[in-house]
Amino acid sequence: ASVRSVTILGATGSIGDSTMDLIRAAPERYKVEALTANSNVEGIVKLAKEFNARFVAVADESKGAELRAALAGTGIETGAGESAVTEAAARPADWVMAAVSGAAGLKPALAAVDRGATVALANKECLVCAGDFFMDRAAKAGACILPADSEHNALFQALASGSRDELTRVIITASGGPFRTWKAEDIEQATLAQALKHPNWSMGQKITIDSASMMNKGLEVIEASYLFALSSDEIDVLVHPQSIIHGMVEFTDMSVVAQLGSPDMRTPIAHCLGWPNRISKGRAAPLDLAKIGSLTFEAPDYARFPGLKLAYDALRTGSGATTVYNAANEIAVAAFIAGKIRFGAIARLVEATMNGWVRAGNLAPLSSADDAISVDHKARKLAASLLPEIAA
Ligand code: NDP
Ligand code: MG
């Protein structure tokens, strides 16, 4: 097999870590072109040396000198600042993992898309922000988008059993998070430590909080809509506490095709890394259904998890509403982490921001990264201005 050159954006994060682990398992197959982080110089330097990367960038400009000093004499090029992360994505690698967290991942992901790379997309926020044009732009550039998010990767695999006109709906599963069985009053008061205790998946901090609020599933409904060109009524969410079935596709004959796997991100990432072939599992755990015993399912509860319903509203509204949904959620999660708002206020801030946005007459279709980033910034400002009222 030929050597694949790879770039990992967000290499020091949770998805980055799983990706590096798969590459580590078969080092002869990959050549690392570029690695990026935000500010974790120590982590990125360690990876750069281990994998002999050609280029390393940190988004935090103030860390540039430290990065340069740490890699002096290694022959590894360095860069710092937002543009350096985009430059890393633009360098010629066959395969790019887009695993920056948040809307900050949009420009770098687009840089990889525009040069027609194969892009494993973990960064769901970037698709939610730029859904209006992201997939079109990928098609125009001849880029191949492979969903790394476990549910979407499952749908991608299941969709191969039929054609688009034979599809009747897709189902993405949700673990239900740590508050699945909690009463609304208790969810309202949940602490940061409680929100960070995910029952099945080990993930970065922001997405773990989004799982507890089910905003993550909301982002994923939007992600599925844009990725696969599905309308909101073609996408269902099903609570499945064991997180073994990740996604299912129902076809016109009522056959339902599912993808299963242990809750380990290395499995969907391995699918993206090997695509169109299958690679070895590395250290990912095999699935032992006899040991698991039973798989259970529940309907999602929009009353206790209003953030999920808001995602459907945003999707139906369109014209930047999903960008606003994401931006408001990023502000809300940061405020919750900082102890400024209660857990239950996350969805209220998102709702208030979306309503304020519509009332101000700000809805308009997005056609470029600048449009998406401008809506993102304005929506963050609006969300921040509504914070005191929501916190009270
Ligand atoms: P982490 O917080 O663990 O890692 C984020 C990575 O992005 C780190 O390398 C971080 O660098 C870097 N980063 C953060 N902010 C910036 C910025 N402003 N500019 C450039 N780089 C930045 O996140 P996860 O790995 O959990 O998630 C990454 C993406 O994948 C998210 O969009 C998430 O929704 C998605 N995803 C994650 C899953 C998971 O299991 N973790 C599952 C499915 C999707 P540094 O280390 O220096 O802070
Ligand atoms: Mg997911």
Automatic annotation (TrEMBL):
InterPro entries, alphabetized: DXP_reductoisomerase, DXP_reductoisomerase_C, DXP_reductoisomerase_N, DXPR_C, DXPR_C_sf, NAD(P)-bd_dom_sf
Summary of the function given for this chain in its UniProt record: Catalyzes the NADPH-dependent rearrangement and reduction of 1-deoxy-D-xylulose-5-phosphate (DXP) to 2-C-methyl-D-erythritol 4-phosphate (MEP).
Domain DXP reductoisomerase C-terminal: 260-381
Family according to the record: Belongs to the DXR family.
Name of the protein in question: 1-deoxy-D-xylulose 5-phosphate reductoisomerase
Ranges in a coiled coil: none
Residues where Mn(2+) binds: 149, 151, 220
Cofactor(s) this protein cannot do without: Mg(2+); Mn(2+)
EC class name: oxidoreductase
Residues annotated for 1-deoxy-D-xylulose 5-phosphate binding in this entry: 124, 150-151, 175, 198, 211, 216-217, 220
Gene3D superfamilies: 1.10.1740.10, NAD(P)-binding Rossmann-like Domain
Pathway membership: Isoprenoid biosynthesis; isopentenyl diphosphate biosynthesis via DXP pathway; isopentenyl diphosphate from 1-deoxy-D-xylulose 5-phosphate: step 1/6
GO MF annotation list: 1-deoxy-D-xylulose-5-phosphate reductoisomerase activity
Residue ranges constituting the 1-deoxy-D-xylulose 5-phosphate reductoisomerase C-terminal domain according to the UniProt record: 145-228
Sorted UniProt keywords: Isoprene biosynthesis, Magnesium, Manganese, Metal-binding, NADP, Oxidoreductase
